[in-house]
Amino acid sequence: MTSSTMPTDPQATSADAIDVLQRLAEVIESRKGGDPDKSYVARLFHKGTDAVLKKIGEEACETVMAAKDLAHQPSDQTRQALVGEMADLWFHSMVAMAHLGLSPRDVVAELARREGLSGLEEFASRAHR
């Protein structure tokens, strides 16, 4: 991903956010079958499911650690570190979704389905699946 393929405006509106996710999904999708020596995403796809999922685990751990840092030492630096780690986690989650045939639209549709449900109701509904 380069600055020419993705906007860098940190003040994007929510509609812009959906557009950014869709454009990122398209860039990720375009890396399928790409040259693993020229694209990080193509390299992850080439390495397979285990490598893609391992990156999500790594990024999730790094996100938790950054969140703990922010909770214990609030500062602009720890806040930005958490935002960066969450961006990495979202990105690698999107790579996994593409690898497994899903898209951000699938996740957004699920969030929309849950809208208006209490967290307890939604959790209880999953227990019966």
Describe the secondary structure blueprint for this structure.
Elements: H1 14-30, H2 40-47, H3 49-72, H4 76-99, H5 104-114, H6 119-127
Helix pairs in contact: 1-4, 3-4
- The average pLDDT score comes to 87
- Tell me about the largest β-sheet: none
Strand content: under 5%
The rounded Rg comes to 17 Å
| Helix percent band | over 70%
Poorly predicted ranges: 1-7
| Beta strands, count | 0
By secondary-structure content and strand pairing, the structural class works out as mainly alpha
Q: Please tell me what the overall shape is.
A: globular
How many helices does DSSP assign? 6
Termini separation: 38 Å
Question: Could you spell the SSE succession in H and E letters?
Answer: HHHHHH
Explain what the structure shows.
By secondary structure, this protein is mainly α. 72% of the residues lie in helices and 0% in strands. It is built from six helices and no strands. The protein has helices at residues 14-30, 40-47, 49-72, 76-99, 104-114, 119-127. Helix 1 crosses helix 4 (76-99) and helix 3 packs antiparallel against helix 4 (76-99). The longest helix is centred in the middle third of the chain and has 24 residues, at 49-72. It is globular.
